[in-house]
Amino acid sequence: MLPQFQPGGGIERVVMNYFDYLDHDQYRFDIVTHKMESRTYADEIIAAGGHVHLFSPPGIGTMKANARRFAEILDEGHYDVVHCHMANAAFIYLKIAQQKGVPIRILHSHQDHYADTKLHALRNIPLINIGKRYANRRVACSVESGRFLFGSKPFTVVNNGIDLDVFRFDANLRNEKRKRLKVQESTLLLGQVGRLVPQKNPLFSIRMFNELLKLRPDARLVFAGDGELREEMEQLAQQFGIAERVQFLGNINDVVPLYDALDALLMPSLYEGISLSMSEAQGTGLPVFAANTIAPESFATSFAVKLKLEAGPKYWANAIATSLPGMPKDRESGVRQMREHGFDAKECTTIIERVYDS
């Protein structure tokens, strides 16, 4: 179960990494999701013999219909495992899975906060506390995420692994992507990858970039992803008079060339478990400037720099401008460092298989 299943979100990319390395003769991979504006991932699942079920958006008005449909799917599919990536929906889906006798019911923790806002947190707290009772296997992307959701109960940590061979830095891809973006090699190109939602704090990036332009007038900023804050971000860039230096790429299917093309990745998230975008970027040897609110395990290489979010945009701009010249230049070493820290998707999938087989 996923909130959405399309390019652009980190959890979906984690799931697809599992899918890529699982033995499709031994495991059939079906997906239940509430949002799918692109069929890119769904087509891969279906081609391997799986199914993708698109449910109505979650809410009071759709809860009964979604629950009934999920129960029907379990009856028809005779599943051995239900793997839930939606902690605030586990009270529906894992409860039904228990009622239907599914032997392995996994709740997977991806973050260490209940929600973006206090109102949403008040809604999620009771739902999550009810839902986790129905899980008999607990998985987390970091120690902090696991302790947040499961407390003192045992859980398995599985890093958000990446395909390290895919994310190895390629100078040719860098040149080609920068040409398509119409960016000179001398231009400082920064980017943020992920949903444009409050948790990811993209408005902070625009405010920081406005300060950075005072130090590096040649700089440009790109956003890969989409979400509810896009219009507000565009308005803020217009307000600062920097709209011509900020580009919105929308959801993209292939992030590798973008990481290669960038000179730095911004990660000012308000909270985060293990950031997949941060892992991918480090695999390409891309300098990452990330908030101290992100799980410590995400800072896996010499390419990651931790900055205090509360220090503000101007502090970040100065830190980036002064730190970049001294950052490691050997981008090819990113793969080696990520493998040493346990972020190889093959190894992570092996851990997931052990949970599935348990």
Mind explaining what this structure looks like?
Helix 1 crosses helix 14 (345-357) and helix 4 (90-99) packs parallel to helix 5 (118-131). This protein is an alpha/beta fold. It has helices at 10-21, 40-47, 63-77, 90-99, 118-131, 143-150, 171-180, 202-212, 230-240, 256-261, 276-283, 313-323, 333-340, 345-357; strands at 31-33, 52-54, 81-84, 104-109, 137-140, 156-157, 189-193, 220-224, 246-250, 264-267, 288-291, 304-307. The mean pLDDT is 94. Strands 9-8-7-10-11-12 form a six-stranded parallel β-sheet, with helices on both faces. Strands 3-4-5-6 form a four-stranded parallel β-sheet. Strands 1-2 form a two-stranded parallel ribbon. The chain folds into two domains: 10-161 and 343-357, Glycogen Phosphorylase B (Rossmann fold, 3-Layer(aba) Sandwich), CATH 3.40.50.2000; 171-340, Glycogen Phosphorylase B (Rossmann fold), CATH 3.40.50.2000. Helices cover 41% and strands 14% of the residues. The longest helix is centred in the N-terminal third of the chain and has 15 residues, at 63-77. The chain is globular, with a radius of gyration of 20 Å.
Features:
358 residues; alpha/beta; 14 helices; Rossmann fold; 6-stranded parallel β-sheet; 2 domains
Topology:
Blueprint: H1 10-21, E1 31-33, H2 40-47, E2 52-54, H3 63-77, E3 81-84, H4 90-99, E4 104-109, H5 118-131, E5 137-140, H6 143-150, E6 156-157, H7 171-180, E7 189-193, H8 202-212, E8 220-224, H9 230-240, E9 246-250, H10 256-261, E10 264-267, H11 276-283, E11 288-291, E12 304-307, H12 313-323, H13 333-340, H14 345-357
Parallel strand pairs: 1-2, 3-4, 4-5, 5-6, 7-8, 7-10, 8-9, 10-11, 11-12
Helix pairs in contact: 1-14, 3-4, 4-5, 8-9, 8-12
